[in-house]
Amino acid sequence: MDDKAVAATIVGAVIGGMAGYLFFTNRGRELRRQIEPALDDIARELNSFRVTMQRAAGVANEGWKLLNETLGDGGQQPPRYPAAHQTSPF
What we know:
Layout: H1 3-24, H2 26-70
């Protein structure tokens, strides 16, 4: 066996052991119930950060557009920071 196969086997065993602990033991279930609210908070913060970045990109795009209009650049250039149209995974 090569090193990559050994590493993949070890990583798989560790992940499987953690999943088994979290889902099939009482202490694991208690730990999972304690972690879930924190994960929800992290997901909410990441979603808020994504929205903030989209707004910042929109402002930057408008700034470039205004600058180009002010300098008399008549050619239409593609937006420098196009607005993302990704839906929220949360």
